[in-house]
Design a protein that fits this description.
Blueprint lengths: L2 E6 L7 H14 L4 E6 L1 H4 L6 H18 L7 E4 L5 H10 L4 H5 L2 H7 L4 H4 L2 H4 L1 H10 L5 E3 L5 H18 L7 E3 L8 E2 L2 E5 L17 H9 L17 H14 L3 H8 L4 H27 L3 H28 L5
Parallel strand pairs: 1-2, 2-3, 4-5
Antiparallel strand pairs: 6-7
Helix pairs in contact: 3-14, 4-9, 4-15, 9-10, 11-14, 12-13, 12-14
Bound molecules: tryptophanyl-5'AMP (TYM).
Tryptophanyl-5'AMP (TYM) binds next to strand 1, helix 1 and helix 9.
Pfam family, one: tRNA-synt_1b
Catalytic activity: tRNA(Trp) + L-tryptophan + ATP = L-tryptophyl-tRNA(Trp) + AMP + diphosphate + H(+)
Keywords: Aminoacyl-tRNA synthetase, ATP-binding, Cytoplasm, Ligase, Nucleotide-binding, Protein biosynthesis
């Protein structure tokens, strides 16, 4: 059985994009792969966050993994800091990565455009991709399911793995990104030119997994559309409508074109209402399970079990690379 690994950095609340682009995929793939899903808590501190917010987000992320259907009996679910090898391999890999490569990461470039960047952005933020490479390579993952925005980081991981293998012998599997065909980039409802994101201050554009039905409906009904007045899938000319079609299609497991065929005769208001209904229907059982799980005493036990399964594998890989590069004496 091939190995698959992915994670989420819960630096804010999880949203519809995290669900469609990531968690929903993890749940499907756990049937057919040796699945590792972790919570990237170290990645969360690469940008400022308060301790209380961080702790809440970590607990929520785990509770939503479970509420969405990740099964701790089937998948290895763990917290990044519970396996110390992530940080250790992250440092080693940062010594195998060139500044030019990190400079080319779009996530870094976007943030590095801001004023006072040298006094705001941290070294941890800069080396974020090498820690992500460590997350993946420690488990010799064959596949990494991610949304579109993380593809570049997985490609850098491949380059690092190939470089290390060439220099020091066959150590790492070279992972492949797995990007869902429908919904790899869910856009903000209030600005379909921007990705839906958890760090967004303007919450009108983001549907959070925790949103009440009324809030979901309100956000969808006020989603930015266009003057064409025809429901059609045309991301260039009708990005808002196309985003809503993509959301519907991803939840329904159909193509955006099939969704278009279903709604092409409707006015925008009726179409939006159908999309809101579909999201509310999808989230209702997840939110009910989330409420049960988050208050239960099971979360600690699940993380402990996941870390127990992950640690020996991570330790084995770290040992191998330490030996190969000459860090170990015995
Ligand atoms: P993060 O936490 O930003 O996002 C988690 C996953 O959700 C996907 N995603 C989206 N997909 C579609 N539409 C959107 N609007 C949307 N927003 C987010 C992301 O592409 C991602 O797959 N660096 C990673 C976390 C990480 C990781 C890893 C992932 C750390 N180590 C190792 C995979 C393997 C991140 O910040 O994702």
């Amino acid at each position: 059985m091939k190995t698959m690994l992915s994670g989420i950095k819960p630096s804010g609340q999880l949203h519809l994009g995290s669900y469609i682009g990531a968690i929903k995929q993890f749940v499907t793939y756990q049937e057919d792969y040796h699945m590792f899903v972790f919570i990237a808590n170290l990645h969360c501190i690469t940008l400022p966050i308060t301790p209380a917010e961080l702790t809440d987000n970590l607990r929520d992320c785990l509770a939503f993994y479970l509420a969405c259907g990740l099964d701790p009996e089937r998948s290895t679910i763990f917290l990044q800091t519970d396996v110390k090898e992530h940080a250790q391999l992250g440092f080693i890999l940062s010594c195998q990565t060139y500044l030019g490569e990190l400079n080319r990461m779009t996530q870094y470039k976007d943030k590095a455009q801001g004023k006072n960047r040298n006094d705001v952005l941290t070294a941890g933020f800069y080396t974020y991709p090498t820690l992500m490479a460590a997350d993946i390579l420690l488990y010799n993952a064959d596949y990494v399911p991610v949304g579109d925005d993380q593809k570049q980081h997985v490609e850098l991981t491949r380059d690092i793995a190939e470089r290390v293998n060439k220099r020091f012998g066959q150590i790492f599997s070279v992972p492949e990104p797995v990007i869902t065909k429908v919904g790899a980039r869910i856009m903000a409802l209030d600005n379909p030119a921007k990705k839906m994101s958890k760090s967004e201050h303007n919450t009108k554009g983001t549907i959070f997994l925790k949103d009440e039905p009324a809030a979901i409906r309100k956000k969808v009904m006020s989603a930015v559309t266009d003057m064409v007045n025809k429901v059609s899938y045309d991301p260039v000319n009708q990005p808002g409508i196309s985003n809503l079609l993509t959301i519907y299609a991803a939840l329904e497991g159909i193509t955006p074109q099939e969704a278009e065929a279903k709604f092409s005769s409707l006015q925008y208001g009726a179409f939006k209402s159908a999309v809101a209904d579909r999201i509310i229907e999808e989230f209702a059982p997840i939110q009910a399970r989330y409420r049960e799980i988050v208050g239960s005493g099971d979360l600690d036990r699940i993380l402990a079990k996941g870390a127990e399964k992950a640690r020996p594998i991570a330790a084995g890989t770290l040992k191998t690379i330490q030996k190969a590069i000459g860090l170990d004496i015995f």
